[in-house]
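G., the chain you wanted modeled:
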Amino acid sequence: MLPLPPSGWCLPEAVPGAAGQSIHAWILEGRAGDTDAFPSLPDDQRRWPSGTIAFAAGTWDAVIASEAGTDTASEVGDLILDVVAGAQASEAGLVALYERLVAENALDYIDTMLTRLRRTGRLPKGRLRLLALWLVRLASDRNPVKVGIALLNVAGTAQDVDLLMEVGRHDEFTLYAVVALRTLLTPERARRAVWALAQATSGWGRIQAVRRLGTDLEPEISAWLLREGFRNRVEGTEVAHLVATTADLAGALGPPRIDRALFRGAGDLLVALIHSPYKGIANYRDATVATERYLRHARRMAADVDDLLALSEIHSYLTRPRDQWRGTAGARWPSAVRQRLIATATEILAEGRWEPMVVAQLASPDRRLFVAADRAAMYLGIGTFEAHMARLEQGDWLSGWHWSSVLRQAPLGRLAELLRLAEERIQPELIATGPALELGLGRQFERHRAVETVLRAVTKRQGMGRPFVLAALRSPVIRDRGVAARVLDGWDRRAWGPGLAEALRAAMLVEPDERNRDLMMRVLDGA
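Predicted structure as tokens:
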């Protein structure tokens, strides 16, 4: 039992109804660390059952959660008050509370519930704190842990900071830990703690922490943001504008000499601003100053393919059609300034060192370096057929990306040969297990995605790739069957050959997806 002196009110040493290892213990064991692209949790299978879409840690709370209304907040609040109000916490009350917490998305109601609890007269905060710590330490499901962290906003103390730092290093819980830390600590201590969590996370957790660092930043925090803090495994554009403004990107680029990490970060930040669907470079007040200073440094410091990519993105942005420079964009980027920046970028990009550098990097075994070189090759107009073909021959036969690049660039005379090779290596017949409503996500559908890639490549190639069409019509992945039907829709009926009309008709009769079924029927009617 976990007593809370001096009242003797206590909670059991295990959560009634909880299944498996506690999330807190899971995190402490390091089973979902910063090296994981999508950190896991022990309740993943319960949270995302087979056949449903699984979300990366922190995604649901960042982009999907919605307001559940006051009923849920009131009902959960009442269950919490029932637990802490009695002489002892009853097992029935704890089970009812835990089951309700598991069933509801915490962020949907948590703010309303906390407001209600704060307004409760004579709230037993000691017991509420013990309940919060009990949930955070012992719950094996994410939503009860989140509610436990949130309750520390009402009843927590500075003694709970270490626990918050422990669970907050997992992207799923960073948001909740950050909010609680800002409640329990002084502004300066809270900012330091939030910065530590930002450094310890790499996905949505980092984004949530960076957003809550504030604007009056210490120099070392600003320096970290410009070099590393804006980067994450979700989307680099999420905090680009925030970092560029609060950490003063333009000011940091002002000195005649800067370090390599700042130069790389500045280039990537400017590219992120260019591509941001949120506040982007058109909203960045110091965009022209920062860009001009970056290009000035680039004359001396641009040294590798990553720098080439940043420069090419900036050049492409500056050379957009004239009609895209109206309004705010035009006011922030006067024509004379743009022409001067274009001239500088063009001069750097015209240097002869870039092409051999890209060609050499296309041979790199490092995937990240190869991806960067592939993008740079596209900008420079360098063909990558041989490079992607080499990757396939090294054993990456199910890579849709490599097949797409090879088939797109293949000489017309080699297309039939390549399709035979694709059939031999991909083995499309293995996906023909019968129609279902699968979305095709995850590594188990890698072969299905490779088949789809080939199908898209033969859409306008009359009669080529028939084995892929036949297999895709019987794939469990919805998209595969739709793509196969669209391929046939684009082919002349005379190119179908024997058996395809019958296969399409048979697929239509058992197609579980209404849109696919309608498409198949239309293709058959028009054939």
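The chain has three domains: 1-206, 215-351, 384-526.

Shout if anything looks off.
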